[in-house]
Amino acid sequence: MAQEIQWEGVQVTNNTALQDILSPEHAQWSLRSDRSWSVVLRGRRYKVEVEKGPDAEGNATLRINGVRKDIRVMDERTQLLEKMGMSVAASAGSGDVNAPMPGKVLQVLVEPGHAVEEGQPLLVLEAMKMENVIKAIATGTVSEVPVHEGDAVEKGSLLVGFES
Fold first, then answer.
1. Terminal Cα-to-Cα distance of the chain (whole angstroms)
2. Which of 16, 128, 158, 159 has the most CB atoms lying inside 10 A of its own CB?
3. What are the two backbone dihedrals, phi and then psi, of residue 80, each rounded to the nearest 5 degrees?
């Protein structure tokens, strides 16, 4: 499956393993631990460590020779949704969750007053003949859920509001 990794304005796409995506040139990867590799690329040795992630949105933090790099790993489906402008986006600075695409609400999993963690499922939205679990993009307390099971929603509609 093709994946894309983005960092500091760079986008690299490849159809192979994570090692090959991070360095498109041929490199020798040696596993050091569960989340750490020694990499030899063009005669130079690098220490690559996964500090955190990837999370549900594909965000991860790596350390390459101790230098922190925030990256984003996207599978083919996520790349397609991004290209079509249908990614889940927050309202300016809030944790509010808007519909990434038009669809039908199949299940609502939270209600006002619920405390949720980042990545926690909020509702299930059927769109493009697929069930999509919409997750919290930040930790917070739900202030409103203006949608109900069976509702049809348009792209950008507020699905779950959070307290400021």
1. 39
2. 159
3. -65, -45
